[in-house]
Design a protein that fits this description.
Helix content is 7%, strand content 41%. The protein is mainly beta.
């Protein structure tokens, strides 16, 4: 939910409590991030005036990073997304370790980072004396109450083990003493369209149109349907790309699934790949008489740590 401009006075909406609020150094502006058991909200605008930008996210979905438990500074952050822009608000406390540090005060700090397509374009600091951040409970507890738990592998919150009835789906295969993770053939389907199926079965999705010849010299026909493209060659599906949530894999992985939930459904981190990677690449599990995996799946994550696109590609059409 997005609102631009308002005559209301900035502050937490009724019934919400602050995650962090502060005045921005060098600007006549303030930021508020507040929450309750249903919503997290973001407000930015002139001090004492109405918010110029108001954003809200369901508490279970808002991008939240808790303290990692390392170092003297306790800090957390929440990020809101508005199209190609993101707004990360953080708060923290520098723990004093001496009497001199205790007397110095100003333990709290905060920041606002604005990014476009994941690239920072503004890094703003809070005036320490105006920071309201206080560690403990807060958004973390609200997310746990919503049924989520923190996954240290993927650095995201996910649903508890056993929530996904289809998992785990990740298998292993070995060739020339090299073991790799792989997906079973039934997972190479999006929105009911499977790799290798006949063009004759896709009539309800639209009419195929020729595409420019590729570097290989091959020319595919393409069907475009609500955030999904389906490429065919010799009347068989050879490539599928989905960027909308309706096009699910049979296991339930879809655009918008958190990285943590993807790992939960897979059952493990793919061999040789990082749990926090921006992409998981998974081949089709080969038959015993096959020398290579013909299909490959690519699960790409956006800056919000959720699936941004899913692609299936025939490597030898």
């Amino acid at each position: 939910m997005v609102f631009w401009g308002s005559t209301a006075i900035a502050g937490c909406p009724e019934g919400q409590e602050p995650f962090n609020s502060c005045q921005i150094e060098g600007r006549n502006a303030e930021v508020f991030v507040c929450f309750d058991d249903q919503l997290a909200t973001y407000q930015y605008g002139p001090i004492g005036g109405g918010p110029e930008l108001f954003l809200s996210e369901p508490i279970a979905e808002v991008d939240y990073v808790p303290w990692n438990g390392i170092g003297r500074a306790i800090n957390e952050s929440v990020t809101f997304y508005n199209g190609e822009y993101s707004y990360q608000v953080g708060g923290g406390i520098n723990r004093p370790f001496s009497e001199e540090e205790m007397k110095a005060g100003n333990f709290q700090f905060g920041w606002l980072e604005v990014a476009k397509n994941g690239e920072p374009i503004a890094q703003l600091e809070c005036i320490p004396e105006t920071v309201s951040y206080g560690w403990g409970g807060g958004i973390y507890d609200a997310k746990v109450a919503a049924g989520l738990e923190w996954d240290h592998r993927s650095w995201t919150l996910m649903h508890p083990l056993g929530t996904h009835s289809s998992g785990p789906i990740l298998l292993q295969q070995t060739l020339n003493d090299v073991t790799e993770s792989c997906l079973p053939a039934e997972e190479f389907s999006l929105g009911g369209i499977g790799m290798g199926v006949s063009l004759d079965t896709l009539g309800k999705f639209g009419t195929p149109e020729p595409t420019p010849a590729r570097a290989s010299g091959l020319q595919f026909d393409r069907i475009t349907h609500i955030g999904m493209t389906v490429d065919t060659y010799k009347d068989r599906v050879v490539e599928i790309v989905a960027t909308e949530a309706w096009a699910e894999m049979p296991s339930g992985i879809t655009v918008g699934t958190t990285r943590g939930d993807v790992l939960q459904i897979l059952g493990d981190t793919p061999i040789g790949q990082a749990s926090s990677a921006d992409r998981f690449e998974l081949p089709l599990c080969r038959a015993p008489n096959e020398a290579f995996s013909k299909w490959r799946a690519f699960i790409d994550f956006g800056t919000n740590k959720r699936v941004e696109s899913i692609s299936f590609i025939d490597m030898a059409p």
